[in-house]
Input
Amino acid sequence: MANASLQSFLLQHHHSFLNSTVHDGSPTAALRLTTNASTSISFKLFTSSSSSVTTASTAAPTPVASAATTTSPPTPSLELLGQQLAEGDYRQADETTRALLIYLAGEPARRRGYVFFSEVQFISVEDLRAIDTLWMEHSNGKFGYSVQRRIWEKSVRDYTRLFIKIGWMKKLDSEVEQFNYRAFPDEFIWELNDDTPEGHLPLTNALRGTRLMENIFTHPAFDCPEEEAAEEENNDTGSNAGQNKDDSKVRVRPKIMTDFKPDYSF
Output
């Protein structure tokens, strides 16, 4: 197609060249166009008074395929997580944490792209503690799975209470006290300041339920013998002295919280 187009262009100029009359007595000239089987096109210029021949050749342009440049995300690692947290890039650190859990949970999780709650057990104690330690060290003890676990225990393992306390649910501007889930990612807080709720990060996707979070919180990495001993002592004291009315009220789930379904989108 490129040859045909160029031939048409040269033929038009060839006829125009032949029809033009030279008044100064110069010899007439003729333009001859030749093609070959390749992509080259040649044309020759002949004059009537000279045997000299001027030859020019042009080659049809060869299309060059542009190489697609794709930038792949960096491989998740504890070093990368520590660097992002040190820079205060909590948004990317949250993504790296999620990618680390997928990588550490095993090959099926990596192929799938997310972690089943039953696969949390395959993450080693050392790795999960290292992730949690990095979050705590770079947030003055405000972020991390262990922080969320502590609040979860104080909330009587009630996830709606937990989500309200760590800021994953926001209070609506209404006459009746109501809460709604924050929209990911814009409504979450990606900076550390005085107003950032304790335990706000890292996020855990609870779209398929809260079993994943529960298995993270109950992972052996967060076993604390001191806390367990204190809890057993409190239980013994409570059973001997009897629960007071305030303790009973704490364990009652408010009606406003019973209206929410475990359909978490973050």
In short: The chain has a mean pLDDT of 76. The chain is about 40% helix and 10% strand. The first strand starts at residue 29 and ends at 35.
